[in-house]
Write a structure and sequence with these properties.
By secondary structure, the protein is α+β, with helices and mostly antiparallel strands. It has one domain: 2-Layer Sandwich (Alpha-Beta Plaits). The protein is about 30% helix and about 10% strand. It has six helices and five strands, in the order αβαβββαβααα. Strands 2-3-4-1-5 form a five-stranded antiparallel β-sheet. β3 and β4 form a beta hairpin. It is globular, with a radius of gyration of 27 Å. The N and C termini lie far apart (about 85 Å). The relative contact order is 0.16.
Length: about 240
């Protein structure tokens, strides 16, 4: 009898120990949607620490506007953005080399001496742009939706693709349809790599500072030209 009761207590204890380990399905471990949520209105830009940046690689950066704000391609808005570019295109190891202004986002091609120089340069541009636009609109608050998106350009082909994408981006969005003139809401006038119209606007002596800086990396000065000059009527992705 005692031996039987001992066996039953042993089985019961074993069942109790096992029950404590049987968690409901879906508990524990990594769960989809768990963790820190991205800020802003367009989640999707990772908040992980960005990798180290070499000074020899240019970067394609995208900055998106918050929803509900006026188009940046309107005359006054575009002037405010370009004024911010002129004031902050070359600061502390950061250089803004090319850009295009779209209705609700900016495309930039930049160089930097390192990760911190890129972050400080972009932050300075964002602050200047926000200050100018908020003054124009009579509002206060943030202007950009989330962290910037970046693509580090490591080969001549990547740089060629990025230049075509940025400088001809308005055709992708239907904001500029001319096949013989460059988009006026871009740095096309300061770009000397057009096959159709080289050196459209060469700043003369005493000219005011432009909104872009001269490239210093080999990839942006010479490397990309291995794949040919750009056409004014190019369509990104085409």
């Amino acid at each position: 009898m005692a031996e039987g009761r001992g066996r039953r207590r042993g089985r019961a204890s074993g069942s109790l120990r096992q029950a404590k380990l049987d968690f409901p399905a879906g508990w524990g471990g990594r769960r989809e949607g768990a963790g820190r949520k991205p800020k802003g209105e367009r989640p999707g830009v990772s908040h992980r620490a960005r990798p180290r940046l070499s000074s020899r690689f240019p970067v394609h950066v995208t900055l998106r506007l918050r929803r509900g704000l006026p188009s940046l391609r309107r005359r006054a808005e575009h002037r405010a953005v370009v004024a911010a570019f002129a004031a902050g295109c070359q600061r502390g190891g950061f250089r803004l080399v090319q850009y295009s202004v779209q209705a609700n986002h900016l495309h930039l091609i930049a160089e930097a001496s390192g990760r911190s120089a890129l972050a400080r340069g972009l932050q300075g541009l964002a602050v200047r742009i926000a200050r100018g636009l908020n003054g124009l609109w009579g509002r206060a608050g943030s202007v950009f939706a989330d962290r910037y998106h970046e693509h580090v350009l490591k080969t001549p082909r990547e740089v060629w693709n990025a230049l075509r994408y940025v400088l001809c981006n308005a055709r992708k969005h239907g904001g500029w349809v001319s096949r013989v003139r460059p988009d006026p809401c871009s740095s096309s006038a300061w770009f000397d790599g057009w096959r159709d119209a080289p050196a459209l606007l060469a700043p003369g002596p005493g000219a005011e500072p432009g909104p872009v800086a001269r490239a210093r990396t080999w990839l942006l000065r010479k490397g990309w030209r291995r794949h040919g000059l750009l056409r004014l009527d190019a369509l990104p992705g085409g």
